[in-house]
Amino acid sequence: MEERQAPKAHKVVFNNRKSGMVTGVVDVISFDLNEVLLQTELGLLTVKGTDLHVNRLNLEKGEVDLAGNVDSLVYSGTNQTTRQEDGFFAKLFK
């Protein structure tokens, strides 16, 4: 039986929609001036806006600092839900 690991800490903090910090980042999928796509401990996080910049990236600590005009933060897919579904079907078809 495989053990499930609890997700690491994940936090999103933005100040006045201009600058912010995200923790619990596993990878930066893509970024440009209008969109930053981050893989976090709790799923994909899309940050949309204008004039977006990645000021600091430390994947060892799982931290990203962003700056620009932030219009939206959207999560898509969660790792926990996927693991539960995969576990059920994997057990069913073994």
Describe this structure in words.
The structure is a single chain. This protein is mainly beta and 94 residues long. The chain contains 1 helix and 6 strands, in the order ββββββα. Strands 1-2-6-5-4-3 form a 6-stranded antiparallel β-sheet, with no helix packed on it. The protein is globular, with a radius of gyration of 15 Å. The chain starts with 10 loop residues before the first strand and ends with a helix.
Task: Give the arrangement of secondary structure elements.
Blueprint: E1 11-15, E2 19-23, E3 25-31, E4 35-40, E5 43-58, E6 63-76, H1 79-92
Antiparallel strand pairs: 1-2, 2-6, 3-4, 4-5, 5-6
Top keywords for this entry?
94 residues, mainly beta, 6-stranded antiparallel β-sheet
Low-confidence stretches: 80-85
Distance between the termini: 13 Å
Q: Could you report the average pLDDT, rounded to the nearest whole number? A: 84
* Broad structural category: mainly beta
Described by strand count, sense and barrel closure, the largest sheet is:
6 strands, antiparallel
Q: Report the principal-axis shape.
A: globular
- Give the number of helices: 1
Number of strands: 6
Helix content range: 10-25%
Beta-strand share of residues: over 45%
Radius of gyration: 15 Å
SSE string: EEEEEEH
Strand order of the largest sheet: 1-2-6-5-4-3
In short:
Helices cover 15% and strands 56% of the residues.
